[in-house]
Specification:
Blueprint (H helix, E strand, L loop, with lengths): L1 H18 L4 E5 L4 E9 L3 E5 L7 E4 L3 E5 L5 E3 L1 H8 L12 H4 L5 E7 L10 H10 L3 E2 L8 E9 L7 E8 L5 E4 L3 E3 L9 H18 L4
Parallel strand pairs: 7-8, 7-9
Antiparallel strand pairs: 1-2, 1-5, 2-3, 3-4, 5-6, 9-10, 10-11, 10-12
Helix pairs in contact: 4-5
Length: 216
């Protein structure tokens, strides 16, 4: 009987200890805050896992302002914070209007928010269509951008595997200046049976070039 109790206690203690582990907090440049367990940190990326999940999420360090570890240590990304204080790559004011932000030739930084990891190709489709169809320059660092294209995406739970995207234009400090309508696309012969490719093109052609620029 004593042996059984010892075994049971031995099984419970690790579980209890893990449940008491303090989570880490990621503070994004755009103002978002994520509470999760960080599994790996490199020079360019941070990998983290949400509580009660096993999926590994990855974020570029260029998108982060600070990381507060559960141990109490704070990691600050000073270069990214500085990006919020400058007047953009083309000398735009901090409160620049939508028209000023999206002027032809300005620099765009893309953030694809894909919480379910539905798009294996990441933001490559968006970058390709912006480069092909618009007069904006896509940059890889927030500190060289004039504005941010923020796109929230999720798959529609249906047999046809539709994808939806909701685009927004933000200043580099994370404030929203324009919110687009939701666009949806299903796999078809026109997009090579890749819904993510089709909906990315719709974001650029329909949302940005027609809906947004058409309102200016």
């Amino acid at each position: 009987m004593k042996r059984l109790i010892i075994i049971v206690v031995g099984l419970i203690l690790p579980i209890f200890a893990s449940s008491q582990t303090k989570l880490d907090t990621l503070f994004y440049v755009n103002g978002d805050i994520i509470v999760a367990a960080i599994s790996r940190i490199t020079t360019d990326e941070v990998e983290y896992i949400y509580p009660n999940e096993v999926l590994i999420n990855v974020v570029k360090t260029s998108e982060l302002r600070e990381v507060h570890l559960g141990s109490g240590r704070v990691l600050k990304y000073s270069d990214n914070t500085a990006a919020l204080k400058h007047k953009n790559n083309h000398g735009l004011p901090a409160d620049a209007t939508l028209r000023e932000l999206v002027a032809a030739g300005n620099n765009m930084y893309i953030i694809l928010d894909d919480p379910s990891k539905a798009i294996d190709e990441g933001d490559s489709f968006l970058k390709g269509y912006v480069t092909e169809l618009t007069k904006w320059n896509v940059v890889d660092e927030l500190k060289t951008a004039d504005f941010v294209l923020y796109v929230l995406t999720e798959p529609v739970k249906s047999f046809s595997k539709h994808h939806t995207m909701i685009p927004a234009i933000k200043r580099v400090d994370g404030s929203i200046v324009w919110q687009g309508s939701k666009v949806m696309e299903a796999p078809s012969v026109y997009n090579g049976f890749m819904a993510a490719k089709g909906v990315s093109k719709k974001v650029v052609e329909k949302s940005l070039l027609k809906e947004m620029l058409g309102s200016l």
